[in-house]
Amino acid sequence: MTSMPEPERLSGDRPESLADLLGGRRGAVDATVPPVAFAIGWLAAGLWGGVVAAVLAGTAVAGWRWRRGDRPRSVLVGLLAVCVAALIALRTGRATDFFLVQLVSNAASGLAWMVSIAVRWPLLGVLVGAVLGQRSRWRRDPALLRAYGRGSWVWVATYLLRLAVFVPLWLGGQVVALVVARVALTWPLVAAALAVSWLVIRRSLPAGHPGLRHPVVLSDPDDVPAR
């Protein structure tokens, strides 16, 4: 009987984590700089001032990401989101509606993660599997499939938390408070979710499991009852 490979490790003999694989800081600049610019512009010159400041900030961030070598589609999506948010605010005349795209995005994301768990294609596994080039091999490891499902609930909780904070502030017209909440619930919350979901995954895997990079293919996961 061949022995299972040792868990993948990084420099300093430290176990590889989700933060190492997924790069949790990515996207934090996109999510925080334009809203902060919008609030400053809005306080200084009203709605049009906020919109102009946000679009300029979004363009600057897109240029920085482009020079850094990010994928063009990802860069354009980030800039498009800022432009759509600005157009919605101008259309409705309410500064808080600049954040409406964020509200809808978090609601849709939370729903998508819950559906992915229900159909046994947890998005955490999909993301990590894509990064590791595993395609769907991880799904044929019942222990890994179960662990990714449990870890994905942590990410569902982040979207629900954001909605619980954002919606009352949006309804109350609290522009500055929305910006503060947006910053506080971006990178810090993502960092916490990466750490907690990684802990959940590690504790869900049985002793001796070789880790995320080495799925143990035992059977068709659809034949294994979910727990």
UniProtKB/TrEMBL annotation:
The chain crosses the membrane at residues 36-62, 74-91, 111-132, 153-171, 177-201. Coiled coil: none annotated. This is DUF3159 domain-containing protein. It comes from Micromonospora chersina. Keywords: Membrane, Transmembrane, Transmembrane helix. It comes from the Bacteria.
